[in-house]
Write a structure and sequence with these properties.
Radius of gyration: 14 Å
Number of domains: 1
Number of strands: 8
Strand content: over 45%
Helix content: under 10%
Order of helices and strands: EEEEEEEE
Distance between the termini: 33 Å
Number of helices: 0
Shape: globular
Largest sheet: 8 strands, antiparallel
Structural class: mainly beta
């Protein structure tokens, strides 16, 4: 991976309105997400089709964002609690893109 591009993506999930957003290289996308919580593992996944915002002529994309809410079995982390995430986009029959990292959740 080229270090110049290691932080080219960012992801946001707003639980109050189920909005999922992603900025990927040269465009940002946003849309409503369906959320699946797994209280046994303390994770939740938001997935949905996102519409382009910065360049409206681009095709919409499907993005999923899975967040490990905490070490406890609850789907929404508390203020300032560190969490791990996995984001996937570019779903297709031959490839997809995957990003993993750490985030800070703030209410």
């Amino acid at each position: 991976m080229n270090n110049d591009f290691s932080h080219a993506e960012s992801f946001t999930y707003r639980p109050e309105n189920h909005e999922l957003a992603a900025c990927l290289w040269t465009n940002c996308y946003a849309g409503n997400a369906t959320v699946f919580a797994n209280t046994a593992t303390g994770t939740f996944t938001a997935i949905g089709p996102l519409m382009p915002a910065a360049h409206p002529g681009n095709e919409p994309i499907i993005v999923s964002l899975t967040i490990k809410a905490s070490n406890k079995a609850k789907p929404v982390p508390g203020e300032g609690e560190a969490a791990r995430f996995t984001a996937v986009w570019g779903y297709g029959s031959e490839a997809l893109a995957l990003e993993m990292g750490q985030c800070i959740m703030v209410r």
